[in-house]
Amino acid sequence: MILHIATFRWKDDVTEADVADLTEALLDMASRIGEIRSYTAGPNLHLRPGGADYGVAALVDDAAGLDAYLDHPEHKAVYDRLLGRMIAERTAVQLPLAEGSFA
Amino acid sequence: MILHIATFRWKDDVTEADVADLTEALLDMASRIGEIRSYTAGPNLHLRPGGADYGVAALVDDAAGLDAYLDHPEHKAVYDRLLGRMIAERTAVQLPLAEGSFA
User: Looking at this predicted complex, what is its ipTM?
Assistant: First the structure.
């Protein structure tokens, strides 16, 4: 399996309402993309100093599943409506994960 | 539970041997820190364009568990020996996660 993680730093004009809207849209999107096995998205809890503003973690079966998710029209719709205009910086990493190893 | 994710961009002089050494050291460390429920670390598979060089994902019970992990002498030892001199940029995010929701 593949664990896809992404962190985001927002532009200065991004509001809490934007972020709440984004989280609702992403979780709704994830629930309707079959290739996504597990998903979470939300603002950084900031339990440690520094850090980014927002994070996403998604579990998919393989590279094809990752493409299906990231290229999905529902994902593009969230990007076009919200995410695209919010991002100042984004980082992402894909890591291999043995099934059932992360729970 | 808390999902802690971190992404790293390496300095230009970091070698593949450094990265392999780091991954072995981190996985060994994680196996000996009781507060870490699940853990993975490794170089970005680069299944999509761009992205960071390396990622870590760790699952802990709560904020105290996160502190126990990140402030652990074993973690500090890996930082002092390898990680500290490798990092050009680091981002990190903590997200809440319902138990059993990510598997």
Answer: 0.95
